[in-house]
Design goal:
CATH class of the largest domain: Alpha Beta
Number of helices: 13
Strand content: 15-25%
Shape: globular
Low-confidence stretches: none
Number of domains: 2
Helix content: 25-40%
Oligomer: single chain
CATH topology of the largest domain: Rossmann fold
Largest sheet: 12 strands, mixed
CATH architecture of the largest domain: 3-Layer(aba) Sandwich
Bound molecules: zinc ion
Radius of gyration: 22 Å
Length: about 425
Amino acid sequence: MIPKLIYEMGKAIRNPLISERLSALLEMQGWSRERLVQHQLLGLRSLVTHAYDNCSYYRTTFDRAGVTPFSILSLEDLRKLPSISKEELIEHRKRIQILTSSERLFYSETSGSTGKPLVFYRNQDWDAWHRASVFRGYSWYGVAPWDRNGYLWGYNFSWKRAVKTRILDMLQNRFRLFSYKDNEIDEFIAKLSKATYLSGYSSMIYEVAKRVNAKKRAWEFPHLRMIKGTSEKIFDKYRDEVKVAFGVPIISEYGAAESGIIAFECPFGAMHVNMETVIVEEENNEILVTNLVSKSFPIIRYKLGDYIRLEKSSRCACGMQHEIVSEVLGRVGKVIYGKVNQYPSLTLYYVFKNLAMEHGLVLNYQATQSQKGALLVRVEGQLTESHRQALNKEITKYFAHDLDVQVKDGEDLHTRKGKKADFVSEIDR
Ligand SMILES: [Zn+2]
């Protein structure tokens, strides 16, 4: 098993703590809800004390809110603490980052909404929990991290970067697409017939699935056990197309570098909250996440910017008692401007959800606003007259006559460069 050997060597060099954390997670997944909550409370008290003692930012904001680490006696007390947005994390990062750890630090960078990135460092323990959480999810599908896998990500490589990327891919038994020419997509798909899993941006997985379905039965995927979509919302349309193409459902890994893994979908279709490392709150449908292992850059009540639905009480057939994220609805904050009123971009989610539920019409779409009072909705595939009427009816239901909506069908929605947003505003950037 050469890939396994390379993986073990890489792990020993990069972060030897991963195996230990993975064993812990595999044990904790059998814990009762009460025990998980108790674990979260201990983790929370430790994180809050640590942040109060070491980060001038948290000390100031906690003092202002009149709370101390001793105020946290139950998980409900978390609500006494102030929340923090990505913009605030970026602005105050120097007063949050703790660089005195004796552990190795890992550089992390994620994009911010204003174009300014968030740069921070994760310590070794945090990095290990993060990776182990991903690998635990893999284990539910009988996938080992060193198994042969395809990877779909945004690409924008210089020649030098491409060489480095290819070497890193080789070490991880991974292959990826470097361009979206049809012949290269076909080559990528041919390689998938020997792969155990596929992961990447959901919209890109969807594109590849469409190509497979367009060339019926040209390939077979006997070894494929898991298809994991990340970073983007997985639309119902994607689920249908992927299942038909590969015979395996697309599952969701929900998280971010700063929050860690928030939830991972189990084989029974439930997105289980990674309660061992995060606390998820839902406030006005918006997610707030506290990363219990973020000791080098504490993340407490962080507004990640998604609307979600959280089910605290439900149980899953897999046996895990962890909370469940029942749905990620969309991004917070974008506004659609009518002639008179404003609407949250989430309104589009309801328009298309109703269309699917009431008319059985599942569409892949993207809406763009370049001027107030007007909206362009582009959809993939051809619309029949009755489809058009159903769509217009749903649009009118929410926007009445406050918005002139132009619907264009037969559109190619993929930029093939990165994330696909369901709403793009050229007014609010
Ligand atoms: Zn489950």
